[in-house]
Amino acid sequence: MDENTPKKPKIRPLNPAPQRQEEAPPQKPKRRLPRFLLRATATLVVLAVALVLVAAVAFRDSLNLDSVKRWFTYRSLVRSDSGRAESFPYGGELTDTFAVLDGDLLVCSRNAISLYSGSGTQYINQSVGMENPVVNTNGSLAVVYDAGGSSLYVLGQRTLVWSTQDLESILSARLNKNGQLTVVTQAGGFRGAVTVYDASYSPVMNVNLSSAFVMDAALSDDGHTLAILTVGQTNGAFSTSLELYGMDYASGQYTPDFSCQLGGGVVLETRHTASAVWSLGDRGLTVTSHDGRSSGVSWADKHLRRYTLSGDGFAAALLGKYRAGSQAELWVVDAQGQRRVLNINEQVMSISAAGRYLAVLTSDRLDIYTDELELYNTLEGTQGARTVLLMPDGSAILVSADSAGFYVP
Length: 409
Fold this sequence. Notes:
Helix content is 8%, strand content 46%. By secondary structure, it is mainly beta. The strands form eight sheets. The protein has a four-stranded antiparallel β-sheet, with no helix packed on it. Strand 4 and strand 5 form a beta hairpin.
């Protein structure tokens, strides 16, 4: 065909015939489960939920978040069926000072500071020269100092973080939860000096007192309030006072925002939380909030044998009618002064608290209680152990004359 010949146009119908759509096949009706099966399934679901709730209530103390933490923390630690790991020598003696540092065993003697893992691996072996080693920990950090001496060491992350040998007659040293350090020393011309260091161990506050002797000091866990304990005379009688200072770094002159009398007892241990100061003494326990309210209990008619302020929200004291003997009462006291009492008819070698747990070591058994004094776990056959150190997850370290071992419930 010639290229110049015109092409015929295509003719399209104006009304094309509609395309026939295929009809979908009819759907089969869905089969329904018989009514009795539906009822049986619902009943089984309800029973399963009920069993889970009953188990959660019955085993709330053993099947909890702490047991999960223990599993992850100690899954590589070889243990017996009872939960005890193999003991290891710690290179010291029972007269040494022991503490738990971030899940490890800290041993402080006059000549060395050592840190051991649960399997006995030694991470720190620091040579020192101290006459009276004392340890204070906040969980992740520890401060070791020579009471009456000039040496002080801060440890953490399985290493020596900071140290100084230039302090004058250290009376006490404490770490708060933020890692801030408070040190009480003797100072010429004063009856005591309190220095607060920040987390990098630079001094940020210094209080010199001349009106009374400083016995102890502690910075609150939030770092906003400094508590200072002093001893002096009131109306001719011996008395202990508590003074609270605001952390005003811009001012060089410090006066207490609040002060109160704690009576004529001797304060043996102090703890300063974010809201209150716990003062445990030979005559009782006093909890003083930052707004001036106080609560506590008295045991002036009993002999204080052992004590601890390391539990979360409670203090524990082992009290007896006589100084010696197997009969005693274990008191657990909360911040409101409410107490729970457990009668004990065995010789108690050691007590320890951490988290919500309290450990009581007797001559042949370790009992771990909750802060409600409900029995959480028991380990038989602890002959030879003389000291127990509890950790916040409920696990413990047992220390004997020449070795130590971890116990995981």
